[in-house]
Amino acid sequence: MGLKPNSALKASKTLFVLPSLFTFLLVGSQGENTAMDNVATERRAEESHRQDSANLLIFIMLLTLTILTIWLFKHRRFRFLHETGLAMIYGLLVGVILRFGVHVPRNMNNVTMNCSVNASPPTLLVNVSGRFYEYTLKGEVSTVKGHDVQDDEMLRKVTFDPEVFFNILLPPIIFHAGYSLKRRHFFRNLGSILAYAFMGTVISSFVIGLVMYGCVTLMKAVGQLGGDFFFTDCLFFGAIVSATDPVTVLAIFNELKVDVDLYALMFGESVLNDAVAIVLSSSIGAYQPAGDNSHTFDATAMIKSFGVFLGVFSGSLALGVATGVMTALVTKFTKLRDFPLLETALFFLMSWSTFLLAEACEMTGVVAVLFCGMTQAHYTFNNLSPDSQDRTKQLFELLNFLAENFIFSYMGLTLFSFQSHVFNPLFIIGAFIAVFLGRAANIYPLSFLLNLGRKNKIGSNFQHVMMFAGLRGAMTFALSIRDTATYARQMMFSTTLLIVFFTVWVCGGGTTPMLSFMSIRVGVDSDQDSSQVTVSDGTQHRNTKHESAWPFRIWYNFDNTYLKPLLTHSGPPLTATLPACCGPLARCLTSTQAYENEGHQQNDDSDELVLNDGNATMYGDVTVSTDASGTFTTNHKPLSASTMGITSEEALDQELAFGEHELVIRGTRLVLPMDDPPEPTVTLPPPPTSPPPFSDPFSDPFSDPFSDPRRNRL
Amino acid sequence: MGLKPNSALKASKTLFVLPSLFTFLLVGSQGENTAMDNVATERRAEESHRQDSANLLIFIMLLTLTILTIWLFKHRRFRFLHETGLAMIYGLLVGVILRFGVHVPRNMNNVTMNCSVNASPPTLLVNVSGRFYEYTLKGEVSTVKGHDVQDDEMLRKVTFDPEVFFNILLPPIIFHAGYSLKRRHFFRNLGSILAYAFMGTVISSFVIGLVMYGCVTLMKAVGQLGGDFFFTDCLFFGAIVSATDPVTVLAIFNELKVDVDLYALMFGESVLNDAVAIVLSSSIGAYQPAGDNSHTFDATAMIKSFGVFLGVFSGSLALGVATGVMTALVTKFTKLRDFPLLETALFFLMSWSTFLLAEACEMTGVVAVLFCGMTQAHYTFNNLSPDSQDRTKQLFELLNFLAENFIFSYMGLTLFSFQSHVFNPLFIIGAFIAVFLGRAANIYPLSFLLNLGRKNKIGSNFQHVMMFAGLRGAMTFALSIRDTATYARQMMFSTTLLIVFFTVWVCGGGTTPMLSFMSIRVGVDSDQDSSQVTVSDGTQHRNTKHESAWPFRIWYNFDNTYLKPLLTHSGPPLTATLPACCGPLARCLTSTQAYENEGHQQNDDSDELVLNDGNATMYGDVTVSTDASGTFTTNHKPLSASTMGITSEEALDQELAFGEHELVIRGTRLVLPMDDPPEPTVTLPPPPTSPPPFSDPFSDPFSDPFSDPRRNRL
User: Fold this and answer.
1) What distances in angstroms separate CA B635 from CA A391, B206, B662, one per listed residue?
2) Is residue A499 pLDDT above 90, yes or no?
């Protein structure tokens, strides 16, 4: 009957590494009518499909409702609850209705069959009357409580496979974060951001882990613990709740036009944070020695864990950058830009394949996608046709919006639809304290250390806001729902959910008052922030630059001289920058457009500025504006730094100062007095000619979704 | 152990209608280490996930390759193979590699466990050592052949769940077809299109069914049939292969700018065709009396089947239109247009919910989505902000492109990866003959009948092209792969695959030579087609109009006077068109913009023309062009038909004649002499003033993807 006769005999040594294929032989009663069976199976499949459609429809309706309410809030200028908080509330309401309001009629047939097996393979083959049916593992189901089976099934049905979050919903969010990164401010604060994101997250994880271990030990002592909770579990919990969410707070920051340095610190930290937390939490798994149940501290395992962390992180980073570079090369050399649809499709597919490739290589797809997004924005974006530039940014903006709101409304729903909640008051209180302490141990000591090196100090008001606005969101949720098999994980999940709710509603809603209370400058045009108006004070300005941008400076020169010309149409031709011996190769790799750029024309939006050490020459400083008819208006101002009487370093800094893509200056409702101006401000002397539209190579390709003038008609 | 003790006792009478929940009790050996088990399960799940990612990556790479080759073909102006044909070839190659090149190492563990059960429920609960795992039914697996199990598993893994086609890939394709429908030409040929799509498809299904029944009987006689093949199976086969594909041929038609009437007939037929075939094939299931294995002819069942067909079709249509209307109302009354991102998201979600709603109501989602797309384009599109108009059209264009190419490359792959192929030479030859006869029985008799009523005859060359260009594509494939459980269905699937390959490669590739051979006009600007240049010949023109547009005329007047003003910002205010008694309601429902339209301003792209019987007045004939800065350039020409010396009927026809959105006139490479001019052409006398930019309310919201000037730089 289609059985592999000897397959049971192969006692494989690699039992736990390779996927297994189990075959069940379920001998059916042959007397029944096969046609009847077929019809019945079809009907059941149809019914199941109908149910799935209805469940998905619930979410679509939820999202639609959220969108309409968001509009209403924006329309009425109500801003104490952000859209993510709103989505959660709607999710909660639907969860309550499904849990308590809807009862599935009891006239279903439950057939219980007995069978002896001792494993849960990912794929089951069931042999019914000689026909094989394939079943896939959906996950473990909690049926411990004396709950109604039918209702349980319905609730289980609206509960998505956690992998959906990692494979479908998170990638567009993270990619969009990378693609829309304000690279200029990001790179100016690169050192601090890396410190917060890497050291800070690790510190926070350990602090939270230790506090929780204390809490768990206490719970065990007072008999409040209903199952195992190991030290590794505590560390895992620390890692997942250390990921701060870039969505809610930054939307508020964006609307209020908060000080750009604070914005850059928060954004950079929370984006990289997610990447660090995901890798950290997965390498804590490697910390646990295989087959060892002691869960005690072990130095070797610790080092191994750290090695895994570094390997996975750098591997994923390299993979993401590699795909981005490949896309840049393809778009540069194929002239695909004549067909925007093909170009957009290629861009989308290449970006998605980064994620899949990383997952297939056992790297972290989310990290790869983040760096792929940054690379795409930095190189590929310059090669795209204007049409594709619009299309890609709009596409990812939409995907990001939908995924984000879906996750947040799903969070709300889970509070009631998830069936294995373990709410332990002691653990919850401990967790809130631990999260607070962990965040404090991240921000304050690191800020102190960073301020020792920074000229542009991170003020104490900045630190308080960073402390307060460390919301937990999509990544924390996704990491905690990924595995809810054990008691420890279930308790973590329930607690995490509460932490997310609290931070999004209370901290998210309180951010605007907090900014006002902390006297943070709002309504700042990003071209006029403090560190940029210090150009005339030579020493001061050079120090500021050196301090904040030194890793960036080396990179910038390399990037601008070799990488940009190689990967994009912009920049000086490689023939000019590479040594003479590489002449033929350089000619082959330089696009005709690059030569044109050297002369008169430039067809894309990226503006270049090349610094030679003694006598700086600036290449094609061009602004291109496209109007509806598709014609280009080009302003070309060939400039020489020497004629402007500034050194190359000043030129670089000026370049950093000017030329973000034009931002619509809007009236904000909340302009506060500065109690604590971070730097003495000196006015910028007017350049010899009318200020040339310098453009920053690291400027973001598009102003973020919230600076769209239409969206902000509040 | 979490078992419901009495659940097995409930012998339900509704066994086959309601979803079932089966519980397997699989008693495991409790001695094993639980932690080890957990780790092992996690590892296996990881490995399975890695494999899934790799499989998906194969498809993404395939699509990327296809895109690059499409670009190369377009770049090199090679046009004998369309992109869909290309995608199939790449799929084929990958299928060959997977089938014969890749072998999974044999060191996997296959555990076979015996268990007695006689059903295949959609959901399995497996109890392993007291923990419940949920499994879902993936489908039946053929393991009859003495094939390698591991390879089988790998091939099965790259084989998608057929429902993916129906629930994820088809909806965007069909929606896009509805959304980009050239409604002007569609409605002008509405009668003929409905005849071909409904009557034609039914005729074709029956002819193919009967021929195949003959073929099957013959096969049975000569002993070539290896299993059951009933008359209902033959009819089912007829229904699925009667669906012609709108993708490939119309892309070619579009590029060559083929005669607009031929284009409209082919497009309208093939789009509605799909809807008819899908409903027809599912109602053939209802034809088969439950529990009856005779599969013989039964008049009652036949009538029931017809009833099901009508009910499902009209229900789905109504649902799709209803969602479209709802979206129009929401976008009209909420001023969501201030936030294009929200608006686009809402539009997308509402359109998707149509599909889910229809599926949840046991209607046909694909049909609902088609009519939703048409309604959205006709009403909602006018309410959207210009930004959202661009976004939605680009979004669906991209989704359509990706889904289409995915399906076609998957088709190629299936030829080798599908494991239950039944290639029967006799059946295949019979099927090719049947498909040919079925198509002939659709086109020629119906054209003859239609020509009796039509003044603008469907020429014999048109008929031959329609006969030749009836390619089978995505819908046929999706319908045939949906159920491959029985021998009959497997044979159908294999044969269908060959029919699709043949028609796409041979008929698709031969369409250009065929057009030339049949002397079909190409390079026709859609504003200058034959029936439009007959305006001065009063009788002739009125007849043409009456003949081709009479169901449309009544509808048009109703739509224009009541529906458009109600659902969109355009048109005359309802206060002017509704009777006086409805005054308050009319005022409430008319947007302020509509009043503005009556006076001076109109803020959207839709241009209106209202016909009153005696003395026609035209409302705001306005063209709005938006430039990059977001300012509107408005040309407002209030016109009165009486001043132009034309009657209201002539005005309507003129309106049909002019004012498609501006089309870029491109040089085509293939302009052929007309042997057979369909109508005597009379030149249009110049209007009294410079020709006013009449605009057709039924004009398509955007020129189709292929008339994008950038895309057509061939």
Assistant:
1) 29, 55, 15
2) yes
Instruction: From residue A227, give the alpha-carbon distance in Å to each of A238, A241, A245, A482, B482.
Output: 19, 21, 30, 19, 46
Listed residue (A13, A397, A171) closest to B53, CA to CA: A171
The phi and psi torsions of A102 (rounded to 5 degrees) equal -100, 130
Residues B315-358 pLDDT 10s:
999 999 999 999 998 888 887 888 888 889 999 999 989 998 99
Q: How far is Cα B451 from Cα B678, in angstroms, rounded to an integer?
A: 12
The residue of A9, A23, A24, A132 whose CB has the most chain B CBs within 10 angstroms, and thus the best one to mutate to test that interface, is: A24
DSSP string of B204-231?
HHHHHHHHHHHHHHHHHHTT---S---H
For residues A687 and A640, give the distance between their C-alpha atoms in angstroms, rounded to a whole number: 12
Q: How far apart are CA A346 and CA A348, in angstroms?
A: 5
Task: Tell me if B111 and A7 make a contact (CB, 8 A cut-off).
Answer: yes
Residues from chain B that touch A45, judged by Cβ atoms under 8 A, are 122, 137
For chains A and B, what is the number of CB pairs under 8 angstroms? 455
Q: Are A211 and A185 in contact (CB under 8 A)?
A: no
Strands B110-115 and B22-26: unpaired
Rounded to a whole number of angstroms, the distance between the first and last alpha carbons of chain A is 70
B124-149 in b/e form (b: 16+ CB < 10 A) is: bbbbbbebbbbbbbbbbbbbeeeeeb
Q: What is the per-residue pLDDT for B562?
A: 78
**To which residue do tokens 């390498």 refer?**
A283
d(CA A195, CA B152): 50
Q: Would you say the ipTM is above 0.85?
A: no
Closest CA to B373 of B347, B358, B351, B343: B351
Q: Nearest CB to B342: which of A71, A124, A135?
A: A71
Best interface-test mutation with A: which of B12, B13, B24, B348 has the largest number of A CBs within 10 A? B24
Tokens of A358: 């990383």
Give A660 to chain B, closest Cα distance, Å: 18
CB within 8 Å: A115 and B38: no
- Put simply, the answer to whether B108 touches A153 (Cβ < 8 Å) is no
Contact call for residues B139 and B490 (beta carbons, < 8 A): no
Q: What is the pLDDT of residue B242?
A: 92
| The one-letter amino acid at B436 | F
Query: Tokens at residue B648, please?
Result: 């209201």
Contact by Cβ (8 Å): B362, B286: no
Residues A682-698 pLDDT 10s: 334 444 444 444 444 44
How far is the alpha carbon of A619 from chain B, nearest alpha carbon, in Å? 27
Q: Do B18 and A143 touch (CB under 8 A)?
A: no
How far is the alpha carbon of A516 from chain B, nearest alpha carbon, in Å?
Answer: 27
For residue A632, what are the β-bridge partners?
A626
Please tell me the pTM assigned to this model: 0.74
**Which DSSP letter does residue B244 get?**
B
Output Rg (C-alpha) for chain A, integer angstroms: 28
